[in-house]
Amino acid sequence: DSGVTQTPKHLITATGQRVTLRCSPRSGDLSVYWYQQSLDQGLQFLIQYYNGEERAKGNILERFSAQQFPDLHSELNLSSLELGDSALYFCASSPQVSGQETQYFGPGTRLLVL
Amino acid sequence: GENVEQHPSTLSVQEGDSAVIKCTYSDSASNYFPWYKQELGKRPQLIIDIRSNVGEKKDQRIAVTLNKTAKHFSLHITETQPEDSAVYFCAASRNSGNTPLVFGKGTRLSVIA
Q: CA-CA distances (angstroms) from residue A61 to A80, B28, B66, B68, B93?
């Protein structure tokens, strides 16, 4: 157990819908990262937040948005969902803002868009 | 931006043999190279990392080597065991708060008993 929690574990929804994925980082960690892992694909970096502020952005679609709240938990919002958005979404946390710290991954949320 | 290429995409070895996974990176400013292991249905976990001020690092049966001139680094697993079967990801980053880790596409290692 990494100490990072994600809810829900599984999510099934329809095209065009909107969903929210939630992540709670390890106690004391200030950075949260979101990744998308599609079948047979690597870990695609989406976005990083540090202490409530956006710090780095990857290949995140305009239909996707995220935020980090004062209690440091983060939410990833996916809207106008398409079939291709079906994937495993991981969040990870690390103590500070550097890209050179160990990232602790949550168990992931498996999203299926039908 | 950084681009990380990882080879092979799949690798099968007999139990007890060695496995080698190779990665190349494009950004000469990258100086941190971690390796993550993802077992089936589980989360990725860091297994070893190396920084550019060293050329090799070992941790029991796992070692990582780095060649900064050639911009490549490798993971070596000796005396492989069935529990080594997993997907392994290499990654690279530079020392910047705004530069996240860039991951390779992964190598699926199967250790055959």
A: 11, 28, 34, 33, 22
